[in-house]
UniProtKB/TrEMBL annotation:
Ranges of residues in domain LysR substrate-binding: 17-213
InterPro entries per the UniProt record, alphabetical: LysR-type_TF_proteobact-type, LysR_subst-bd
Pfam families xref list: LysR_substrate
Name listed for the protein in its UniProt record: D-malate degradation protein R
GO MF annotations, alphabetized: DNA-binding transcription factor activity; sequence-specific DNA binding
Family (UniProt): Belongs to the LysR transcriptional regulatory family.
Gene Ontology BP terms: DNA-templated transcription
Length: 220
């Protein structure tokens, strides 16, 4: 009887730790960030629902009830634990049609002679800096959307600076071309952050195990 009671207790304890429920993640508004990894996680753990909140705002993970956040940059927060993720590059790109009409810049300085599509941060109000460029650049279009900048670039409206993870298909099919060797530039850091001060749910435990496996396996 005691053995049966112990077996029942262990079974109940295991079942109570089965992953399930909703995993709330905050992500930067960059198309392509962890899409393949999140899809693979859902395939492995279909009982865990994902709620993804895309925002440039640095949410308060604990106060706002998030399980974790993906953030750009290598900053540190003592209240949070972190896992370094494969980063991305910001590429300077243009459509072939634009390059036929306006020519291809051969140096960063020549960007000043072109129609440029910029991103303005809704948080800071500042224009995003471009790789390889230290001087102020002209502005043909300014917006706060990756998708809008991509659409304008594809329509030949100018040269844009876009995350490589957001334009993989366009780079592969040649509808956008990288310029000035920006595809060989330094990567922008990405981090997975989660609270260090509270116990982990079963869904968060399996998510962290999964992401550790993806990173060690060389995802991205």
């Amino acid at each position: 009887m005691l053995d049966e009671a112990e077996s029942l207790r262990v079974a109940l304890e295991r079942s109570s730790r089965q992953p399930g429920g909703v995993l709330r993640l905050s992500l930067p508004p960059i198309g392509g960030v962890l899409m393949a990894e999140l899809a693979a996680f859902r395939q492995r753990y279909p009982e865990v629902a994902l709620e993804l909140d895309y925002s440039e705002r640095n949410v308060d993970i604990i106060e706002e009830g998030f399980d974790a956040a993906i953030r750009v940059g290598a900053g540190d927060d003592g209240k949070l634990r972190s896992l370094a993720l494969p980063g991305f590059r910001r590429l300077i790109v243009a459509a072939p049609d634009y390059l036929v009409r306006h020519g291809q810049p051969r140096s960063a300085a020549q960007l000043a002679e072109h129609q440029l599509i910029h991103y303005r941060s809704p948080n800071s109000g500042k224009l995003e800096a471009w790789p390889l460029v230290n001087a102020e650049l002209p502005r043909a279009l300014v917006c706060n959307s990756v998708h809008a900048r991509l659409d304008f670039a594809l329509q030949g409206q100018g040269i844009a600076c876009l995350p490589d993870i957001s334009i993989r298909r366009e780079l592969e099919d040649g509808s956008l071309r990288p310029l000035l060797g920006s595809e060989n530039g330094e990567k922008v850091a990405l981090r997975l952050l989660w609270p260090s001060s509270r116990g982990l749910s079963a869904r968060m435990e399996v998510f962290l195990d999964f992401m550790h496996g993806q990173v060690s396996g060389g995802c991205g």
